[in-house]
Structures are given as structure tokens and as C-alpha cells.
Design brief:
- About 10% of the residues are buried.
- This protein has a domain of about 100 residues.
- Helix 4 runs parallel beside helix 7 and helix 5 packs antiparallel against helix 6.
- With about 190 residues, it is mainly α.
- The chain is about 60% helix and about 0% strand.
- The chain is elongated.
Length: about 190
């Protein structure tokens, strides 16, 4: 049997008898719909599939989703630090006066507007405002002392840079709105 020569009929008959007969399945051919696209048109279609042209609204939504995912990943990395984790637990383990400071300050502001014509009452309202701010600062100071003591016990030498502002911001947020959500309940031992 030669490489480029035709097979003789006897080889076909022998092969047909030894192997089971499998019916041929016709391949599905698509009919040609129109003329073959030019190279320029084919490249443009490929580019459109790879980089779809989006409307402004779709592009904004896609970009906003990408930004949101990037911010969440960055926050996840940032908040996984042991110092920040401990700070969150210290703040969330007790009731903080800072949680209610914003509603209290709004009430004081509204009261000062209502009693603005009476200087005696306005002075009392401003004194209450300053007392609230002072009480929040004292609460944050105690929280910071407790936190630094725990941090030095559990992670000696861990840098404290930026943790005071992180804790203060967390103290001033309403517990329900804190991100990441509190892991510990009020009164839990840390």
C-alpha cells in the first residue's frame, strides 16, 4: 500500500468486515446568509464583541460597580489589621455616648433656635451643648486608655498610628450603621 496511491477494493472490504458499521451523521452546515464580510468589517465586529460600546448610563453603572468592588476590597484589607480589629471590639463592647451625640446636638441646635430671643435660656442650651461635647471627649479618652492597655498586652510593639482617629470615628457612629458591623455584643468581655 503506497502513501499516495489509491487503496484497492479488497482492503476496503476487509476493513468493513472487521469493524462495526457506524452510520455517518451528516454535519450541520449553515447556509450563507450574505456576502463574506470584508476584513475591516470582521475586525470591527470582533472589537465590538471584545469592547462592547455601552451607553453613558451603562458605562457609568459598570464603572460605579468596579469602583465599589475596589473600595470594598481596599476596606477589607485595611480593616483586617489586628489593631483596627481590637479597636472595633473595644468600641463595640460598651455603650458609647458618642452614639447619641448627633441626635443630642441636633436637639440642642433646634432648642437654641427656638429660645434665641430669651438670652437666659440660650445660655443654658449652649452650656448643655458644651457639656455634651465634654462628656463625649471624656468617654473617648477612657476608651483610648483601655484600648492602648489591651493592645500593649496582646500585641506589644504594634504601631498606634491612626488608631485614635479610627476609634473616635467609630465611637461617634450609631452602632447600627457601623462598617464593618460589630462582632461583639454590648457587655461582652474582650
Amino acid at each position: 500500500m503506497g502513501l499516495f496511491s489509491k487503496k484497492d477494493d479488497s482492503a476496503k472490504k476487509d476493513a468493513g468486515q472487521s469493524a462495526p458499521v457506524v452510520p455517518e451523521v451528516p454535519t450541520a452546515h449553515r447556509k450563507k446568509v450574505g456576502p463574506t464580510p470584508t476584513r475591516k468589517e470582521a475586525e470591527a465586529a470582533r472589537r465590538a464583541r471584545v469592547n462592547p460600546s455601552l451607553t453613558k448610563k451603562e458605562r457609568r453603572r459598570r464603572d460605579a460597580d468596579a469602583d465599589r468592588r475596589a473600595r470594598q476590597e481596599e476596606m477589607r484589607k485595611r480593616d483586617s489589621d489586628v489593631g483596627r480589629t481590637l479597636m472595633r471590639d473595644v468600641v463595640d463592647s460598651r455603650f458609647r455616648l458618642g452614639e447619641v451625640v448627633m441626635p443630642l446636638l441636633l436637639v440642642t441646635l433646634a432648642t437654641s433656635l427656638l429660645v434665641g430671643k430669651n438670652p437666659q435660656l440660650a445660655n443654658y442650651v449652649m452650656a448643655a451643648f458644651y457639656l455634651i461635647v465634654l462628656a463625649v471627649l471624656v468617654d473617648i479618652t477612657f476608651m483610648w486608655r483601655r484600648f492602648t492597655k489591651l493592645l500593649d498586652e496582646r500585641h506589644p510593639g504594634h504601631p498606634k498610628r491612626g488608631l485614635f482617629m479610627y476609634g473616635m470615628n467609630r465611637c461617634l457612629q450609631i452602632r447600627r450603621w457601623r462598617i464593618p458591623a460589630p462582632r461583639v455584643n454590648r457587655g461582652d468581655k474582650i
